[in-house]
Design a protein that fits this description.
This protein is an alpha+beta fold. Helix content is about 20%, strand content about 30%. The protein has helices at about 65-70, 75-80, 285-295, 295-310, 360-365, 385-400, 405-415, 435-455, 455-470, 475-490, 495-500, and strands at about 80-90, 95-110, 110-120, 125-130, 135, 135-140, 145-150, 155-165, 175-180, 185-190, 215-220, 225, 230-240, 245-250, 260-265, 265-275, 275-280, 320, 325-330, 335, 375, 475, 505-515, 520-525, 535-540, 540-545, 550-555, 565, 575. A hairpin with a 2-residue loop joins β16 (about 265-275) and β17 (about 275-280). The longest helix is centred in the last third of the chain and has 19 residues, at about 385-400. It starts with about 60 loop residues before the first helix and ends with a strand. It binds zinc ion (ZN). The site of zinc ion has 6 residues, from α6. Zinc ion (ZN) binds near residues 2 and 368.
């Protein structure tokens, strides 16, 4: 996902590679949503420039009851493991309604009589069947506790059929589920629900830790429409009543929020990258533009495969599907709404010119196939594993296409978007998305880590093996830290903690005694054990210091005014005393 991003006042710092973006308004993540869902079809209009963004909710305040219900991985979630969903729905565009069943197979991990599922409070639970027997259930906000008449046994598999219906309420930045029209007035119904959760439109175990292993998606829609969902297309069946059912099979674990309906009058064209089928679905009017713009897909996939290994969902193929919002990483069916133009909604997102050389949504949202979809965070608190990593993947793509220097300029262009006001990692067990720093500070932190490693071959190997180790798994930051500590044979825990669990950047303090030709240095950082190498001196003749939070002193021939720190390689503050 790329969420709403807003900028602090941008200061032009010449010589640091930064340039003024001049965007004091809605940043690009909002796109047409800034106008409200009713304005969807005017997505080609420029975003408004006068409105101020809403202040981003703090992640430090007390949670709501809904935050806790949704975020806690309590007994009735932990007692089972999802195996298979068959989501079988009928979508009525005229009534703006959905009705159907999610058949849920799960394995009990402990003996128990109750499990916890979710369905938005405004949708009806029609019945929940266990075989032919209806089950009792209890609703609490969006939570549905399902009760069984006798104890389910650990180690055994069970199946229930959750029947539901209603009109999903449009909500969140991306609408949840929206019943819109395309510019030609045809039905265009899409889902995008990472923020509010998939249970805004279908019943599931709506949390991040437990991904279902595989999933079938069956969508009945009027005959003249097309549904593109995740996974491999298995065929369509004319139901004889004016509706056709489209069947898709997801053959890998998938986050609930990635499950998508894209219903419209799509046209299709296809390509291949080696054995990987590439399928593209756009509105008829946009075919020519799409054929041209989507030529960026193969080199993008090539670049990421070179860094990390095979595209993670090969059996399901790669799809790019036009949507009325900016974009979303829907697994194997990436949502695209970037106007068939380079940049991010035609803007220079990183502010250094590079963004206009590629289609931001193609690169960013597809990068999520590796980080977000294949490697997934097990708790929303650790969402930087999706967004920080994928933002860093953008810079790897830039490096592959345009070289290292441009990649460094690109990632540093994001500094202007960082606030350093709250930690990136939020409290576990409360469903609250971290601040936007998880994107840009996350990427700048990984760029910093590369400089700590200071050996590109080692860094590239570590990235690839990290991905290979954790692909198709749900992990926490602790797993990331453990991996890199072991792999790099260095205790980087205080470095990870300083960047991810604290708001403020580490400050390199440099104190000069020019009469005696001495310089003292230390890190000023909240983490007492913070220790990180850094390049100091003058460009081209750097000395690598190994500061800790204790003072060290060294001879220094370069005068105070001329001393530089390689702040494009390390995201730090520098204070000359
Ligand atoms: Zn993203």
């Amino acid at each position: 996902m790329l969420r709403a991003v807003f900028l602090r006042a941008v200061v032009v710092i010449s010589g640091c590679g930064l340039s003024a973006l001049g965007l004091g308004s809605w940043e690009l993540g909002l796109g047409p949503w800034a106008l409200g869902p009713s304005a969807l079809i005017s997505a080609q209009e420029p975003a408004p420039t006068e409105q101020k963004p809403p202040p981003q909710a703090s992640t430090l305040g007390p949670p709501t009851r809904a935050d806790v219900l949704r975020g806690a991985y309590g007994r009735y979630r932990a007692n089972n493991d999802l195996l298979f969903y068959h989501l079988d729905v009928r979508v009525d565009p005229e009534r703006k309604s959905i009705a159907g069943t999610n058949t849920i197979r799960f394995r009990m991990l402990a003996d128990d009589t109750r499990i916890q599922l979710e369905l938005a409070a405004n949708l009806s639970v029609d019945r929940i069947l266990f075989g032919a027997a209806p089950l009792r259930y209890e609703r609490d906000l969006n939570t549905v506790y399902v009760d069984f008449p006798s104890t389910l046994r650990a180690g055994r598999d069970y199946t229930i059929a959750f029947h539901y219906s209603g009109t999903p309420q449009e909500q969140g930045r991306f609408g949840g589920m929206t019943f819109g029209k395309d510019p030609a007035g045809r039905h265009w119904i899409t889902t995008s629900c990472e923020d509010h959760g998939a249970s805004v439109w279908w019943p599931n175990k709506d949390q991040w830790r437990d991904e279902v292993e595989r999933m079938q998606i069956s969508v009945a829609i009027p005959n003249d429409l097309v549904d593109i969902s995740n996974g491999r297309f298995m065929g369509k069946t004319d139901l004889g009543d004016g509706y056709t059912r489209w069947d898709w099979l997801v053959q890998y674990p998938i986050n609930n929020y990635n499950v998508a309906l894209n219903i419209g009058r799509y046209e299709h064209f296809a390509d291949r990258l080696g054995d990987l089928p590439l399928d593209f679905y756009v509105l008829p009017e946009n075919l020519d533009k799409a054929r041209k713009q989507f030529a960026q897909v193969s080199p993008m996939l090539d670049a990421f495969q070179k860094y990390f290994g095979e595209y993670p969902f090969a059996k399901d193929g790669y799809k790019l599907v036009e949507v009325p919002y900016a974009g979303m990483e829907h697994q194997s069916a990436v949502a695209y709404g970037n106007r068939f133009a380079n940049g991010y909604l035609e803007r220079d997102f990183a502010g250094v010119g590079t963004s206009l050389k590629f289609d931001f949504i193609i690169i960013h949202e597809s990068g999520h196939e590796w980080f977000g979809n294949a490697i997934s965070a097990a708790d929303v608190s650790d969402m930087w594993i999706h967004e920080g990593w994928t933002t860093y993947l953008e810079s790897l793509y830039v490096e592959d296409r345009f070289g290292r220097d441009e990649a460094i300029r690109y990632v540093n262009g994001y500094k202007s978007k960082v606030q350093n006001s709250e930690p990136i990692i939020t409290q576990r067990g409360i469903h609250r998305e971290p601040m936007q720093d998880m994107y840009f500070k996350g990427a700048l932190f990984l760029n910093t880590l590369r400089s700590v490693v200071n050996d590109d071959a080692v860094w590239r190997g570590a990235l690839r093996d990290f991905y290979q180790e954790f692909k198709h798994r749900n992990i926490l930051t602790e797993d990331v830290v453990r991996y890199f500590n072991t792999r790099l044979k260095r205790d980087l825990t205080p470095v990870f903690d300083q960047y991810l669990r604290r708001a403020e950047l580490p400050i390199l303090e440099l104190a000069f005694n020019e009469r005696d030709g001495l310089m003292s240095y230390r890190w000023k950082a909240g983490e007492r054990a913070f220790a990180m190498p850094v390049r100091v001196g003058t460009a081209g003749t750097w000395t690598i210091l190994e500061p800790t939070t204790d003072w060290q002193t060294m001879p220094m021939a370069i005068p105070k005014a001329a001393i530089e720190v390689a702040t494009d390689l390390y995201y730090v503050e520098v204070r000359k005393l």
